[in-house]
Amino acid sequence: MQLELIDVVKVYRGQKRAIDGLTLQIGSGLLGLLGPNGAGKSSLLRIAATVTRPSSGKVLFNGEDVVARPDPLRQTLGYLPQDFGVYPHLSAREFLSYLAAVKGLSARSARSRIDELLELVNLTEAAKRPLGGYSGGMLRRVGIAQALLADPRVIIVDEPTAGLDPEERVRFRNLLSDLAADRIVLLSTHIVSDIESVSNDIAIMAQGRLRRRGTPEELLGTMTGQVWETVVGPAEAAQLQARYVISRTVRTTAGVRVRLLSSGPPTADAIAVPPDLEDVYLGVVPGPGARTGELPAVPR
Fold first, then answer.
1. By residue range, what is the domain housing residue 103?
2. Stated pTM of the model
C-alpha cells in the first residue's frame, strides 16, 4: 500500500496558503507528522482523508487518483479529525452503532467490534452514559474508537492524544504502533513525545511546507555539535534568550541552566550536549521569540 501527496497546494479564501507545494510518500508503517499549530497539518490530513480537495496537486492511493475517485480509499480509511463532533444525547454504544451502520457493518459484527473497541479505549463502564456528559478526554477516546470501527488499512489521526491523561496517551501510542505493522498510519501532532516513542519515520512541517524528514537517528545527526548547556546568572540568561533559540531553562542553586541551539559555543564554559528530538524540532521550527541571527547552521 502507498499513499502519495504530490506537489499539493491548498489556498483558502483571502489567498491564505495553508499548504505550499508539499510532496509526501507514505507506505506501510507509522509516519509521525510534527509541526506547530498553524503549520498546515490539519489541512494536509483533511486532503489525505478525502474530506477536502487540494487547490492543485495530486493525491494517489496505490497509484489511483483519489481526488477524482475517492471511494477506494474511503472504504479502507479510519479518520480522526482534530475537531471531532458527537451527538450529545446518544450513548457511546449508540453513537458507535450508528457509525457502524453508516460504514456498512452488519449488526452482529458491529456489536462484537464495538465491545472490543470500548474495552480497548477503556470506556466499557461508561458505554451507556450520554456523550454530553463525557469529559474531553473521554470524547477523544470515542473518536479513536470510531476511527478503528471498520478495521481500516489506512489510519489518519489528527492530534489524537489531546485531552488524554498520561496513561491513556501511552496506551494509544502503543496501539498505533501495533496497528502500523501492516497498515498505513499517519499521526499528526505538535507534541514531540507523541512521536519519538512510536515512530521511526518523522516528518517536520512548518508554514505549509515539509521542512525535514528522516529516522530519529538521521534527524538527531543534523544537530550534532549544535546543542549547548551553560549555567549563568538571571541577567545573562535573559541575554541568551534574546540571542539564541532556547530549548529549556532550569533554575538551580548554582544559577540558571540554559539549553540552547547555536553553531558555536554561546559562552566560554558552555558544554556541547547530545541533541534530542525537541532540539531538532526547535532548530527547524523556531518559536516566535527566536532570534534568527544565532540559529544553528543546519539545512532549512
1. 90-151
2. 0.88
The rounded distance, in Å, linking the Cα atoms of 224 and 273 is 8
| pLDDT tens string 62-115 | 999 999 999 999 999 999 998 888 999 999 999 999 999 998 899 999 999 999
CA-to-CA dists, residue 195 to 94, 181, 192, 267, angstroms: 32, 16, 5, 32
Q: Are residues 147 and 158 in the same domain?
A: no
Residue pointed to by grid coordinates 478503528: 148
Residue 294 DSSP class: G
Q: Residue 246 forms beta bridges with which residues?
A: 260
Query: Which of 147, 149, 170, 167 is CA-nearest to residue 158?
Result: 147
Is 156 in the same domain as 58?
yes
- Across the strands, what pairs with 80? 157
- What is the chain's length? 300
Which CA distances in Å does 136 have to 31, 83, 156, 210, 292? 25, 11, 20, 31, 38
- Same domain, residue pair 5 and 126: no
Tell me 69's DSSP state. Answer: -
